[in-house]
Q: What sequence folds into this?
């Protein structure tokens, strides 16, 4: 029974819990057992909240036996990226500078998960302050891809993706700034969504690049991701960039899974040189599949997308250099060298030297450069203009089609260590995902098969206009149903040793 | 060579990061390579194009200024590296002669 429970989807667990076929305590214990069994190899978690998870589960079981009406996710476990503040648990952001920090407040999304009765299993590994595409930039060790432990799980939300792929949790949450949900979802063979910017609250999400950071869900199925999307989203007065609009009907769209008559645009610029053959082959098949399901497919050009990567690597570091100034060793976190001989600035510089890893330092310095007087117009200013042009490309495209599609990443999971000393090679992992972050619209990654070269998962990316997140789920669910029918099982069933 | 080792050292000082010499040797060529790559944005004809700082179009978002519960002093200070008399205790901020 215990293994069976960890193989169930969130939707199946929700139904079984509602029918009282199983208790929240049993479900939670099964996942804690699974974590104990496999996380030594995968290292998806930085903190496992055994006691509070079981206590939460007991409360849900009591409420249910008292006949209370509960949310669909009540009793369903979820893993939380270590960038969301959580009372009663540490929050490190994968950084030494926050080692041992216990935030005194919950993120809005943490609070919403708790209110919905979702069981918080613990905190997942990530690239330090969400900067990276492999989770190798964590100060607490690398997470391993459950498909092949020698490969990266993607990043920055690599722990959240790996936890779901390894059946340690049916659901998890991450954040996407340049692709940090969709890229790990793609390389781990699961579903991950970047909601519309402002559709999910940033309150209590430790900031990396505030105009881009977007919390979103991971699941093993499109419907599961939609269920979590619905619970975590919605207007939050505590986040001034939160959009005051209803949550798009994502769960209904995932259940309908109908693309007949939809206009789907294939982005010309997101293919070709630099893309792995197996990725392009699976993507091509996915497009044919959608066409066979009744969608009208056309090719759409977005000429400025080729400048999205350089614009992003100016905008995100600029914002990060400002946001991470808060780590000043004065009010919380690490403090180094305060022995009475040094002044505050020296202590600050020593603390940041020892508390930050190489990638965070690179980006802070890069951002400081891009914002400095004399360079501002040529770098940050120009990148902001390119951002406008990318938004205009999307607007033009969405005047012709309902959604855009591309591969989620140019390649499948690469080997741990392969790109660690080559920042530009690492940055290319975000090539397909960055445009949606810059435009603030919505995008999803859904598995579309295995690359022939290495039998590792490939993701199909679907992009929709802002606040049309439901279209993502409609298309992704249709593709998922057709693919699963063709394969005879979910893609994840192909992963060896799981 | 858009950026030199000395410039990286200067930027690190501005960023309050006490980089070691070994790190400067490692980071300076990488930053040079990254800046060369991102400078590609300068190719784009963008004259007269307004900049976008964020994509929602929201401006001046306010909420009502109403009293509501907040952290207690104990909670606010609970994660501080050092405290004294219910305050954050910090290293000296002025030099001997100031």
A:
């Amino acid at each position: 029974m215990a293994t069976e429970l960890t193989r169930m989807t969130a939707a199946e667990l929700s139904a079984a819990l509602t029918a009282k076929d199983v208790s929240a305590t049993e479900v939670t214990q099964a996942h804690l057992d699974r974590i104990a069994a496999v996380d030594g190899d995968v290292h998806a978690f930085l903190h496992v909240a055994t006691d509070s998870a079981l206590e939460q589960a007991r409360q849900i079981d009591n409420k249910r036996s008292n006949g209370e009406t509960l949310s669909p996710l009540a009793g369903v476990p979820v893993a939380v990226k270590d960038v969301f503040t959580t009372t009663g648990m540490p929050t490190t952001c994968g950084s030494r500078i926050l080692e041992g920090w216990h935030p005194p407040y919950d993120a809005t999304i943490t609070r919403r998960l708790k209110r919905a009765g979702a069981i918080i299993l613990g905190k997942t590994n990530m690239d330090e302050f969400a900067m990276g595409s492999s989770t190798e930039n964590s100060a607490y060790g690398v997470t391993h891809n459950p498909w092949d432990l020698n490969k990266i799980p993607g990043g920055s939300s690599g722990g959240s993706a790996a936890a779901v792929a390894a059946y340690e949790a049916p659901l998890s949450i991450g954040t996407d700034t340049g692709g940090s949900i969709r890229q790990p979802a793609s390389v781990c063979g699961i579903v991950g969504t970047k909601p519309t910017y402002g559709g999910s609250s940033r309150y209590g999400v430790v900031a990396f690049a505030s105009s881009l950071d977007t919390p979103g869900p991971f699941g093993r199925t499109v419907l599961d991701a939609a269920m979590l999307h619905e619970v975590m989203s919605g207007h939050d007065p505590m986040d001034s960039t939160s959009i005051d609009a209803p949550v798009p009907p994502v769960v209904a769209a995932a259940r309908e899974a109908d693309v007949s008559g939809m206009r789907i645009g294939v982005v010309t610029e997101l293919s070709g040189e630099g893309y792995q053959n197996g990725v392009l082959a699976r993507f091509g098949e996915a497009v044919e599949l959608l066409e066979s399901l009744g969608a009208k497919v056309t090719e759409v050009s977005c000429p400025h997308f080729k400048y999205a990567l350089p614009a992003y690597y100016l905008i995100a570091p600029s914002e990060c250099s400002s946001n991470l100034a808060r780590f000043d060793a004065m009010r919380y976190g690490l403090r180094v060298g305060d022995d009475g001989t040094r002044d505050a600035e020296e202590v600050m510089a020593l603390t940041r030297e020892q508390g930050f890893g190489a990638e965070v330092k690179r980006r802070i310095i890069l951002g400081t450069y891009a914002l400095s007087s004399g360079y501002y117009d040529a770098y940050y200013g120009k990148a902001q203009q390119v951002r406008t042009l990318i938004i205009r490309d999307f607007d033009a495209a969405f005047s012709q089609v309902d959604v855009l599609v591309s591969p989620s990443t140019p390649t499948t999971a690469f080997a741990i260590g392969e790109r660690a000393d080559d920042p530009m090679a690492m940055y290319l992992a975000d090539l397909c995902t960055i445009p949606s972050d810059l435009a603030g619209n919505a995008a999803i990654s859904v598995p579309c098969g295995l690359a022939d070269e290495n039998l590792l998962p490939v993701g199909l990316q679907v992009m929709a206009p802002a606040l049309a997140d439901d279209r993502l789920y409609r298309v992704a669910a249709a593709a998922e149903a057709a693919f699963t029918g063709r394969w005879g099982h979910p893609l994840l069933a192909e992963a060896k040793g799981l | 060579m858009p950026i030199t080792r000395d410039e990286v050292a200067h930027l690190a000082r501005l960023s309050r990061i006490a980089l070691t010499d070994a790190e400067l040797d490692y980071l300076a060529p990488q930053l040079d390579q990254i800046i060369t790559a991102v400078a590609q944005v300068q190719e784009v004809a963008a004259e007269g194009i307004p900049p976008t700082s964020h994509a929602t179009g929201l401006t001046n978002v306010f909420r009502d200024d109403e009293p509501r519960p907040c952290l207690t002093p104990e909670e606010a200070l609970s994660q501080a590296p050092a405290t004294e008399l219910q305050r954050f205790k910090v290293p000296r901020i002025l030099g001997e002669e100031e």
